Amino acid sequence: MKKSSILLIYTGGTIGMKQDPVDGTLRPFDFSELLKEVPELMKFALRIDTYTFDPLIDSSDVEPSLWQSLANLIRDRYDRYDGFVILHGTDTMAYSASALSFMIDGLSKPVIFTGSQLPIGIPRTDGKENLISAVEIASAKDADGKSMVPEVAIFFGSKLIRGNRATKVSAENFRAFDSPNFPLLAEAGINIRYNTRVIRPAAPEGSLSVKTDLDTRVSILKIHPGMTPQVLRHLLCGAETRAIILETYGSGNAPTSEWFLDILRESVGMGKVLVNVTQCLSGAVDMDLYANGKAMEKAGVCSGYDGTTESTLSKLFLLLGESRDNSWVKEMLKKDLKGEISR
Ligand code: ASP
Questions:
Q1: Low-confidence ranges of the chain (pLDDT < 50)
Q2: Exposure of 280 in the CB half-sphere (CA atoms within 13 A)
């Protein structure tokens, strides 16, 4: 029987870092050394090929160009592998996993992001466990020989999370990611328990396609007490944005002062796409619940439902990249494209 094969893609991040002997800061090191650190990987009956980005980056330097390179790399090598594991820094992993979930259509194989809180060379590292389980998940097949998880997902701290439902919730805990509005796709203990009920079905083989046109003219505003009309108008009505994500209170509420609503109406009148997501960790926007939310809806603000800020941002990049027509973008925001919102 043919051995399963995995492409392990290394973009950078803590998992592959070591301490600079001179100034003590963490800096990326050579990927060949990373494999030396995890000889356990050799025990899988798998062929593991590697691809290293050059230069390696701390994920706080990630730009959409990295997503385009990753999507193209997966498209170009798709037929040669059974699954893909992407080593990525934790800081923007949820953004990158969300973006890839929208950029890759027709997926029938796993694309699993992972990383770590402690570098792999450190004895207490969480990187080994994360990497080994991510490889196991990326190569797992059901009784019919089909991939168990034909999705873009994040494996971290024993949880497998849909990429566009993930958010980083801790800067130091090993369970650094959560999926506040959607069940886990799997959980790793003695066994890896797959939640097959919620895993998306595989697309028909041969249907893979990749979208790389992104329009990044989107900004994010976290609503807070003490906002001023000057700052709000600058963000919402500036020529440089086509869409603004408003991170609102609770179930989608914001101030009802006339100046605030006037600026919202002015922005919508300019044709901009305003999207309401909650700044709470879990729960959904429901603009019909309170008068404050209703006022936003009346001003023309779209609901982001129970989507994360990370997934709403990358969904907008993709939709705006696909069309210049903002009314079409608003219609598409209502649709659950890749399991990112509950509709
Ligand atoms: N700053 C690092 C990064 O995101 C943090 C990490 O990997 O955990 O690349």
A1: none
A2: 16
The two structure tokens encoding residue 172: 């130091």
Sign of CA dihedral 131, 132, 133, 139: positive
| Dihedral over alpha carbons 198, 94, 215, 305 (to 10 degrees) | 50
Whether residue 59 has its Cβ less than 6 Å from ligand 1: yes
167: β partners: 178
Is the shortest distance between the CB of 90 and ligand 1 below 6 Å? yes
Could you give the CA distance from residue 338 to residue 150 in angstroms, rounded to a whole number?
A: 12
Structural tokens at position 338: 């890749």
Q: What is the pLDDT of residue 182?
A: 98
Q: How far is the CA of 174 from the centre of ligand 1 (A)?
A: 13
Q: What pLDDT score was predicted for residue 291?
A: 85
Backbone angles phi, psi at 120, to 5 degrees: -65, -25
CA angle 339, 167, 96 (to 5 degrees): 75
Residue whose entry in the numeric block shows the structure tokens 């330097």: 61
What pLDDT is stored for residue 34 in this prediction?
A: 65
Predicted structure pTM score: 0.95
Q: What domains can be seen in the chain, in order of their start residue?
A: 4-210 (3.40.50.1170), 218-333 (3.40.50.40)
What's the pLDDT at 33?
65
Q: Tell me the catalytic residues.
A: 14
